[in-house]
Amino acid sequence: MMASSILLPANSVAGTRRRTPGFLLSGDRRSSTAQVVRTQRLFFVRSALDSLETKVSDMSVNAPKGLFPPEPEHYRGPKLKVAIIGAGLAGMSTAVELLDQGHEVDIYESRTFIGGKVGSFVDRRGNHIEMGLHVFFGCYNNLFRLMKKVGADKNLLVKEHTHTFVNKGGDIGELDFRFPIGAPLHGIQAFLTTNQLKTYDKARNAVALALSPVVKALIDPDGAMTDIRNLDSISFSDWFLSKGGTRTSIQRMWDPVAYALGFIDCDNISARCMLTIFSLFATKTEASLLRMLKGSPDVYLSGPIRKYIEDKGGRFHLRWGCRQILYDTSADGETYVTGLAMSKSTNKKVVKADAYVAACDVPGIKRLLPSQWRESKFFDNIYELVGVPVVTVQLRYDGWVTELQDLERSRQSRQAVGLDNLLYTPDADFSCFADLALTSPEDYYIEGQGSLLQCVLTPGDPYMPLVNEEIIKRVSKQVLTLFPSSQGLEVIWSSVVKIGQSLYREGPGKDPFRPDQKTPVKNFFLAGSYTKQDYIDSMEGATLSGRQASAYICEAGEELVALKKKLAAVESPECPQSAAVADELSLLESIMGSVIKDGSSCFLSFCCVFILVHPFSCDAQELKACGLDAIYQFGDSISDTGNAVLEFSILPYDQFPYGITVNNATGRPSDGLLMVDYIAQAAGLPFVEPYENPKSNFSHGVDFAVAGVTVVTAETLVKWHIPPFVTNHSLTLQLGWFEKHLSTICSDPKACQEKLKSALFMVGTMGSNDYFLALSRNKTLEEIKNTMVPVVVQTITEVAKKLIGHGAVRVVVPGLHQLGCSPGILTAFETNTSVHDAQGCLKDFNDMFVYHNDHLKTALEGLRKEFPNVHVVYADNYSALQYIIDNLSKLGFKALREACCGTGGKYNYSVDQLKFACGLPGIPYCSNPREHVFWDGGHFSHQTNKFLSDWLLRDMLPKLQCAA
């Protein structure tokens, strides 16, 4: 029988609830005042644990044990040293639990900020940018427990207990859980009275839910959870429709909820995911109550957790990425991790611990795991999981978009007005969104400005290839469709964050592939929201996985110490534990595979490679005679030393097998070094570091090159009816970066000229991406020659001219290589009627590159005449590569047109780069990259870059006139 007393919604964490202004519905109990009003309310949990009130208000009482584990017993075993890879919520949750048990913890994070998918950062203008929209459901018991422990619970703002749907035209629908009596009646009345569905759909909806395991959860939560798990094999749509639910209910209510939970719709999400949430909503009053942080996650969530960890003696190591898992396999077949090969820029070290935790997301763990471990079904199952792409857009307006009642108030900037809650919509590509200036005002409300809408585009696939400007245009148009009253408000700032693989795709039948936190490798553990736990992939799931990982480690404490002693006894200097490449400049060869005393093999997670080092020619060494003190590199992936991976984490350039030849994946799209690296070495300078890395040292130049960049702007490409790449970078943007950098190193034009007179400027290689985009849109070679080449060459020349105006006196402008020989171009554009040259390359394509180069040489000749005191040098990349082609066997090459890293077809390359790109799990690479001209579909190998730079240096030195 339901208790007759009135239940106040119990709040398991501190916070303030705010009235939701901005609209008034028929029968609405709220004020229509448009001002945000903060009202303090007292929340409490009743103490009688056996009362029904407690059962429906206290999350941990009469609840599934898998979701709400008891507090861990005090650890009494030996103190352990634990290394955690990944400073996301799962990694930090693991660290907190271990530190509380007295262990020593180090956390390694490859990025410059912590938090993972819950992270945020501040851009150069002071704007807080989040990885996604973060909403805290009332059933996040484990996360609330963590936040209370670290003192972050006070940073949550409780919203009105209603779920708001914004429909086309500003029509508002609600699931209103505000009711004098708690669960399950509050939920029943919410679904029966919702105005988001029509009467028939509500009735069928009620029937479906009445026939679900949700009802069983009221009396047997663990039994209900078992039943829910057993429904993982079907989609929510299939289950819901089979129980009498309607397609309209799915489209108008459940799809937006599914998108918000898992970034996929009801046809594609497992019934397990949705019913897990429903069971909590039905049985716990607070489960459906939403909270949001009062500011950015970095300040109000990750920040307090980090402080707690550091106060407990834990250590964070940012920008340290794990490149390899070092491991041994003993004679009895047992596998043990012996260390982690870590790197930070050119610094390297091997980290040793008693236990190792990989707290990664799905793409991260796939990149990290040694390929040999896939022989174990446990690890191989992980590769059945894939991430969902998601795009998060922030739009700052000059007024209040979600204020629907008072048009005049929506235009003022004195106070925040509008809808202060998470918002769902079935009528836009962003299924959930919020006005952060209202919901999280500490960092997002800016005096004198208006709404900051944060919109989550799901599915994100259609938006991933679009430039930011097009995404902003489409999203702002959809905002206007939802809020016609916002007509006339302008977007004054925006940001776009694309994550290629976010939450794992919780489709039907995928739950069995989720790995446990305890692995077959005794001292290696997993954490992450994708790992096995009873909740879904979420912040709560990540936190729970950390608790479970810590419990497994503590349980194995004695065994881990014994294993450490065993490993120490069998270690031998004859079996190196890492690839000891002490200095990239030395390019020392690393040899693995020695035999240790007990006969077990010494392995790395990637094959060991021999590096053939060719000394620089005497001519190349003479570049030092130029007395250069800096190199400024502009260009695309041919010269990108790490910018692209900092912007697009989906790119694999900072993960093995990229960098395999020099045993360091630094973000370069090659198995080793690039031409700019060799040129820097020849000049006696350090490697040029990427502009996008805030930790880079720019004392000897800057690399502005970004993979995928075009010469012309995105706007120009669009005028030619050519969709740009995902990046909207152009050579003009790189010039802007340089000018911004210049303002930091010199104060006036004269000082800048003095500063730059000893610098070398490399403007390219560039142009190929412009042409490839055109070809992909079925532009003919003649169209490209007649329309594009003159503009591309003119743009390159104009940028070179501006650099000269700033003080450059040595400007090198490279031409294009004959990329008609590249595996990518051959695979994508070769036809039965293609004309090939003697080497099997596409002759028409290479002729086009010659056409570009001829125009470029003519333009540079004009620059020399205009600036006779400046050394403007054409770098003949085409002839440099032709030298290699003509001397393939003499130089040790065996393959011109086949990629070393890749799979598929006669060129070892597939056009389906989403599935078969170099660097993705399971994609093979050759055993000897130095025998291949191309490392992957379009980038040269380490060895090729070495020979190309040697040839160019010999050719360019006389033209640079360094001895003059």
TrEMBL record:
Molecular function terms from GO: 9,9'-di-cis-zeta-carotene desaturase activity; hydrolase activity, acting on ester bonds
Main location class: plastid
The organism's place on the tree of life at top rank: Eukaryota
E.C. numbers: 1.3.5.6
Gene Ontology cellular-component terms listed: chromoplast
Domain (Amine oxidase): residue spans on this chain: 89-553
Family from the record: Belongs to the zeta carotene desaturase family.
Protein name (Swiss-Prot/TrEMBL): Zeta-carotene desaturase, chloroplastic/chromoplastic
Classification of source organism: Eukaryota, Viridiplantae, Streptophyta, Embryophyta, Tracheophyta
